[in-house]
Structures are given as C-alpha cells and as structure tokens.
Amino acid sequence: MVLAVASVAAVAGKPAVASDQPAAPQSRNPIDRWNQMSPEERERELAKLPPERARQIRERIRRFNQLPPWEKQALRERYQKFAQLSPERQEIVRQRMRDFRQLPPSRRQLVRREIEHLRWLPEPQRGARMNSEEFRSRFSPRERQIVRDITEYLPDQLK
Amino acid sequence: MNCPMEDRHSETLVAYAAGELDRETAAAIERHLSVCPACRSMAAEQAALWNTLDIWEAPPVSSDFDRRLYGRIRNEARLSWWERLSRPFRPMPLRQALPLAATTCLLVIASFLVRQPDQLTPSRPRREVVRADQVERTLDDLELLRQFGTANQAETPHADTM
C-alpha cells in the first residue's frame, strides 16, 4: 500500500519536461505565455473567436516566432518597458506610434532621427531643443507631438 | 518512441523499473532514457523504490501464529448467522482501526497529489492560460514598438507587419 501511494505521489509530483519553460523573467509577456500553452489549450482559446480572426492571430504568432532571436529579445525588452507605463500613458504612446506609422517614409526617417538625437541629450538641453525655433520650423505640430511623447515616455526605444 | 512523461504514460516507466516489460519495449525505453532527463530521473526514483523493497525483511512470525490462526477459523465457523451479519456494525478495536485509518489518510494524500500537483510543487512553473484577444492586443503593441527597432526598419516594406 505504502509503495503504491509513494509511486502515485512520485508520478504526481514529477515536473513536466522543462525544455519549453521560460528561464528569464522578461519572457513572461502574453506571447511567450501563449507559446508555453499546449496546442489544445491554444486552439480552445482561438475557438472562442471568429475563424478569420483566429486565423490571423495564428499567422501573426507564427511570424513573431520566426523573427531572429536577437530581434525577439529586443522586442521583449521594449514591450516590458512599455507594459510598465500606466494604462493612460500606454494609450498615448500607442496613438503616437500609430501617428508615426501614418507619416510619409521621408518624414518618418526625420522624426526617428530627431528622437534618436534627443535621447542622447541631457534633460535641460533636450527641453531647450524641443522649445527651439529650429525644432518648430522643422516639424509639424503632429510630428512634434510624436517626438515629445515618445521621447518622454519611451526614452530607451532607440537604444 | 514518444516520451512517456510527456504523454502522461508514466506507468510504462513504473513497469520498466519493476522489470515487467518485454525485452523489445525495455530496450526502447532504455534508448529513450539516454536522451530524456525527466524520464531518467523518474526511472531512477522507481528503481530506488524497488531496491528498497528488495532489501526489506519481513519481521519473524510468532511461534504460536498457526495455533491462534486456526483457533480464529474455528471460532468463525461456530458463529451464528446473526452474529456474522451484525459484525460490521460493531465498534472496531483500536489495534485494527489504526492501520485502516493510516491507509485511508495515505490514500487521501495521494489522490490530492494526483489532482493538484501544480499547487503542491513550488518548483514547477505554472502554465497560465492566456486569452486569444489578449495575445492579439500584445501583437498590435509589438508591431507598433517594432517600427522603432532598427534604423531602417520602418522604411522596409512590410517590416512592421507581424
């Protein structure tokens, strides 16, 4: 009897094969947690959505998983910083990033360079530059808002 | 062969440790053990259990065991049908009740372990269920964040699609 109980306890307490378990704390974003679920669990969750939407999610996950490891890691770290912002700030950043995406490619490049440049400046100089005539003449109000908010809320984004 | 631990067929490993498998299956298990640390550890635990049983010696039986046993059998045969029927309802002597209670406790603990291994094993990382819409929102955010990735990424066609 004791043998049977001990065997059952040994089987029950045995950890699952741990090869797919995340090692680093930054891997705990929803995508990584999703990847750690069993295929049955994932399909059960996807079945709650309309088929076309579920198909798109599958495809997007597949594309994320195919990114090179260094890029996935960089995105994880970026997302972790973003997730630490308050919900209101997250919404502001989302809106600015959508605005950025809608800019023409040439303007996008300019805005990106400006954000990168400002990131390296000490705080007082950064403020002075954003209040300068040159800054105002170079960028539209919408572009200035993108630069201001991204620089303020996600200062490490261009590292 | 498939991993017995992954397929939740750990009884195969228990049978292997007990030497109950045929030669072919045992050989397949041995090949799998050489590459699977989880199964190797499980098989080692089972083997240790069997080794412990092998070296266990039963305590000697008292010299008047046979006399008392046959006496009880004789008494049993003399019982009336009414005494036999009412016996289960009589209070059980403590000497008999204790092992029964201990066995019941062990069974309850074992069934609890089988049902809730996650909660009782602190080292085992819990597998959380993430909602699909939560994943979709995160993918949206990752796509937006990705456009600030590398210097030329946003200008590459479809680079921000994920």
Could you name the key traits of this structure?
heterodimer, A: 159 residues, mainly alpha, 2 domains, disordered N terminus, B: 162 residues, 0% strand, elongated
State the gist of this model:
The complex is a heterodimer of chains A (159) and B (162). By secondary structure, chain A is mainly α.
Give an account of the 3D structure.
The complex is a heterodimer of chains A (159) and B (162). By secondary structure, chain A is mostly helical. Chain A folds into two domains: 27-84, no CATH class; 86-159. Chain A has helices at residues 2-13, 30-36, 39-46, 51-65, 69-83, 87-102, 105-120, 123-130, 133-138, 141-153. In chain A, helix 6 (87-102) packs across helix 10. Mean pLDDT of chain A is 82; it is low at 1-23. By secondary structure, chain B is mainly alpha-helical. Chain B has a domain at 10-55. Chain B has helices at residues 10-17, 23-33, 37-55, 65-78, 81-86, 94-115, 117-120, 132-146. In chain B, helix 1 (10-17) packs across helix 3 (37-55). The longest helix of chain B is centred in the middle third of the chain and has 22 residues, at 94-115.
Mean pLDDT across residues of chain B? 76
Helix and strand pattern of chain A: HHHHHHHHHH
Q: What's the shape of chain B?
A: elongated
Distinct helical segment count of chain A: 10
Percent strand of chain B equals: under 5%
Q: Roughly what fraction of the amino acids of chain A lie in strands?
A: under 5%
SSE sequence of chain B, one letter per element = HHHHHHHH
Evaluate the radius of gyration of chain B: 30 Å
- Roughly how many Å is the radius of gyration of chain A? 23 Å
- The count of strands of chain B amounts to 0
Largest sheet of chain B: none
